[in-house]
Amino acid sequence: MSQREQLIRGLYRTMFESGDVALAERVVTAGFIDHAAPPVPVPVPAGPGQLRAVVSYLHSVMADIRYEIDDVIHDGDRLAYRATMSATQTGELFGFPPSGRSFSVQQIHIVRFDGDLIAEHWACRDDLGALRQLGHIS
């Protein structure tokens, strides 16, 4: 397993699953851009603050967040991975009230590294599938 793959796996365990945002400054560049950030309550400029805002937002609307990284592909300064995310909705999500229900969806993520730090992130998430499982749409 490469150092970059270890960083990604650790990032999900340490930040996204636990909600501990202290790691942000050590894993992303000062100009980090999350091109696929969910709508956070207050817009935040690029950089570690953007990552902290996304993680904090997710933990304000979901509980029991888990990520299983299924596949990882490296190519130069890019790393792509397929993940399964599961959680329980406990707060307003995409304008829908808390359901208390759980969901599990597939996601594809791509990150661009600048040296040892993540500079950019893109994602393709099954938000529609999550909303269906939560009972918000049919």
From TrEMBL:
Gene3D superfamilies reported for this sequence: 3.10.450.50
InterPro entries: Cyclase_SnoaL-like (IPR009959), NTF2-like_dom_sf (IPR032710)
Taxonomy, superkingdom: Bacteria
SUPFAM superfamilies (alphabetical): NTF2-like
PANTHER family xrefs: ESTER CYCLASE, POLYKETIDE CYCLASE SNOAL-LIKE DOMAIN
Identification of the protein by name: Ester cyclase
